[in-house]
Amino acid sequence: MNLRRLRLNSNIRDLVRETYVTKNDLIMPVFIKEGLDGKNEIKSMPGIYQFGENAFLDEVAECIDLGIKAVILFGIPKLKDSCGSDALDEEGLIARSVRKIKETFGDKIAVITDLCFCEFTDHGHCGIINPKLKTVDNDATLEISAKQAIVHAKAGADMIAPSGMMDNIIETLRNALDSEGYKHIPIMSYSTKFASAFYGPFRDAAESAPVANEFLPKDRKTYQMDVANAREALLESLIDEAEGADILMVKPGLAFMDIIKTIKENTLKPLCVYNVSGEYSMVKAAALNGWMDYENLMMEILLSFKRAGADMIISYHSKDAAKLLK
Questions:
Q1: CATH architecture observed for domain 19-324
Q2: Is residue 193 annotated as part of the catalytic site, yes or no?
């Protein structure tokens, strides 16, 4: 066998290439901070910014110009309280931001809204706290999650992405959206989301680090998945598929390639991979120190997600990657 025959010429290599990353695969996260004037670079995520309400439309415009088809919005409000009130307000930060994007750009870009409460609560956890159990109250959080979904839908969101890892969240949101006349809005489930150490820089970006005290755990391990569990990872996504999720997700990506492949082989639903903050920051840090070739490393990582089975990728590299893609 002489496999090198098909590697000696770049044109032939392109002809036999099995996997591609395209601009159509990319989703760019956008952090919007109430009260911020302009933009603020996130120290642990070089090149990524929090944007004020007077600046984030420029970021969306740049994504459109680069050919990126979707953004996912994260809000950092001034008001943070025990139940994330701003997230339930039709005049709240995310609702206002969605309306501004739609009023400015129409359907030039898809707007996905992250549906959670960690950025909106003063304790940094993903819902209403049950002090007896010392964790998030699942059913109470489902109730306010349904309200948040309707707020997003009324504002004009194209897709809703619940990230809190509450049991039965997809069924709850599907029923709420359908009953309010939003049957057309798809749900991208964070269906297999691990309690990962790779999330650290995101908590700087979203100002959402969980608070630990006598009533609260120091982490989210009571509701996010154990990183050791592969069969449970598949089960989580299959349950969300059965409940009506339109798109499934694995988060993080790099340490969970086996999970991406397994889920892809066991469902016909589209699969998203979240290339998370810690993965981004490691690559950026290596590049800034001259240890690695940023562009080649970035593209290799994105390509590996596609090869493992991803149909789309949420990545902080999205703009940089789009600049390299045709």
A1: Alpha-Beta Barrel (3.20)
A2: yes
